[in-house]
Design goal:
With 505 residues, the protein is an alpha/beta fold. It has two domains: 330 residues, 3-Layer(aba) Sandwich (Rossmann fold); 109 residues, no CATH class. It has 13 helices and 13 strands. The strands form five sheets. The chain has a five-stranded parallel β-sheet with strand order 4-1-5-6-11. Strands 2-3 form a two-stranded antiparallel sheet. It has a two-stranded antiparallel sheet with strand order 7-8. Helix 9 runs antiparallel to helix 10. The longest helix has 26 residues. The radius of gyration is 28 Å and the shape is elongated. The N terminus is likely disordered.
Length: 505
């Protein structure tokens, strides 16, 4: 084989030398001519002063924190890039923190943690050591935005509900940690903390085009909490949502000719936060004596519970089918974990030990937060509380609320006669299609609804997109804008934007 390659090489060299001696030089391989794209046009829109109003998805939040790199690649920043020379500067309330601040922090004990990165073996989302400059507190002057609110374009505030965009309490530092309506990420740049509102500050900049994406947190907070926090006001009623959305649109579009783009709410239970932990995440290897003893001990401990269920069947209080569903046992390999299920028949009036528990099933969704408690024995020796599982019944309620909110958004736009002035981005369908397909390819780049590199579109927190995922979402907005207003904004090449980084060895 080496001889053949050697002879072939000599033949190519001889051909080249002969051609040169004969006065003929072989032309180089032709390269395709690179034609620069035509500059984008605005169509019937005016992008001169572009502003964005939203929550963490608008602010640039990813990987569990708001930090410099995420903010520099926020959704409206990417949309603004597509506007190119049609729009002026795009200013944001810079966070000035390389790693940001995450909820894993414990400032009382001087533990400051920031964004998540995949680390360890197997890789796990791991908070990075940050510093006190990112602590969201009125006592931390480094957290404050020192620029002028009048110069801002991005009014995305992590963590806010729709209604918080309309009320002054959202930015009132005097109520910090006293009133759940206060949000430090707005208070840090509010024009007049305690008096101004997010929408008021945004509209005071005299925008010519707006982006509005709020409402996700009005259902997401309830879902992430395992469908347990409705009483805390983070599962907004459809009536309140409709009233608040109407009020927001009236403030933005009333008495002017401004045009803009809004987005609906994606199915929150499709996000990786509910897909990363399997329902059968408890693993035993009974060839290991310790695991074998553990399985034996667990099964012995639940024997009385299982027998009590049989008694309830004999008394015709529950069916055999329900008893079989509730019985608990562990074996070698992957096992479902034990959970509280409030939809089961309450048997405690007959026997206090027969609490409403069962093992998880394939139709249950497990929040990512469960990964932090399962190693402690929760789900085996003690049942996991409701916050660590979404049952099919709870998922159905959540999905219905998403559908109702999206119907309300369309209804409000129609009732206010805004369909000619406002483009609607169907993020819900786009992300549902991605979840169904498993993988799509855009700009030659594979994309999945996960945070697993290299194709994952979500960041390490399982809730927010990564930079590439935000670029994909920006393209959804760009297409809707072009279709509505006849503009020719250029879509982003996803290959230019990174996804989740591979773990360091």
């Amino acid at each position: 084989m080496k001889t053949i390659k050697y002879i072939l090489s000599l033949a190519i060299i001889a051909l080249f030398v002969f051609s040169c001696q004969d006065g003929f030089i072989a032309p180089p391989n032709p390269q395709p001519e690179i034609v620069p794209p035509e500059p984008p046009t605005a169509g019937s829109a005016d992008f001169t002063k572009f502003i964005a109003i939203g929550n963490s998805l608008t602010a640039g939040f990813q990987a569990g924190a708001l930090f410099n790199d995420g903010q520099k690649n926020s959704l409206p920043v990417l949309i603004h890039k597509a506007m190119d020379n049609l729009s002026g500067d795009f200013n944001q309330p810079d966070i000035n923190s390389e790693l940001g601040y995450s909820s894993f922090s414990d400032p009382d004990n001087n533990i400051y943690l920031g964004r998540l990165l995949l680390q360890g073996n197997p890789p796990q989302p791991t908070p990075q050591v940050s510093d006190a400059s990112a602590v969201p507190s009125p006592l931390n002057s480094a957290f404050d935005y020192t620029g002028s609110t009048a110069d801002l374009n991005n009014f995305g505030v992590p963590g806010i509900l729709l209604g918080q965009a309309l009320i002054p309490e959202t930015g009132d530092w005097s109520l910090f940690q006293l009133d759940p309506r206060v949000n430090p990420f707005y208070a840090r740049f509010a024009s007049s903390p305690g008096t101004s509102t997010i929408l008021g500050d945004a509209m005071a900049t005299s925008p010519t085009f707006f982006m509005f994406w709020l409402g996700n947190n009005d259902v997401l907070g309830y879902a992430i909490g395992g469908a347990t926090d409705a009483d805390l006001g983070i599962f907004t009623s459809v009536a309140d949502f409709t009233t608040q959305y109407t009020g927001a649109m009236q403030i933005i579009t009333g008495g002017n000719t401004i045009k803009g783009v809004v987005a609906n709410i994606p199915s929150v239970t499709d996000i990786p936060f509910f897909k990363a932990v399997s329902y059968d995440a408890v693993v035993f290897d009974t060839s290991d004596p310790d695991d074998a003893a553990k399985v034996e001990s667990l099964n012995a401990g639940y024997a009385a519970y299982n027998a009590g269920l049989d008694q309830m069947v004999a008394l015709t209080i529950i069916t055999q089918e329900e008893a079989d569903r509730r019985k608990i046992s562990f074996e070698n390999g992957n096992n479902p974990f034990v959970m509280i299920d409030e939809d089961l028949t309450d048997l405690t009036s007959f026997n206090p030990a027969l609490v409403s528990m069962r093992q998880t099933e394939p139709t249950d969704l497990i929040p990512l937060t469960a990964a932090t408690v399962l190693p402690t024995g929760v789900g085996t020796s003690t049942p996991a509380e409701d916050e660590y599982v979404l049952t099919p019944e709870e998922v159905a309620v959540i999905q219905q609320r998403v559908d109702d909110f999206n119907a309300a958004i369309e209804s409000v736009l129609s009732s206010l006669s805004l369909n000619d002035r406002v483009a609607l981005v169907d993020v819900n369908t786009a992300f549902s299609d991605l979840a169904t397909a498993g993988t799509i390819v855009e700009s030659g780049v594979p994309l999945t609804l996960s945070f697993v590199p290299p194709g994952g579109a979500f960041s390490e927190d399982g809730v927010h997109p990564n930079t590439r995922g935000y670029a994909y979402t920006a393209n959804l907005f760009i297409r809707a804008i072009n279709a509505k207003f006849g503009s020719t904004l250029h879509e982003l090449n996803l290959g230019n934007y990174p996804g989740v980084a591979l773990p360091l060895p």
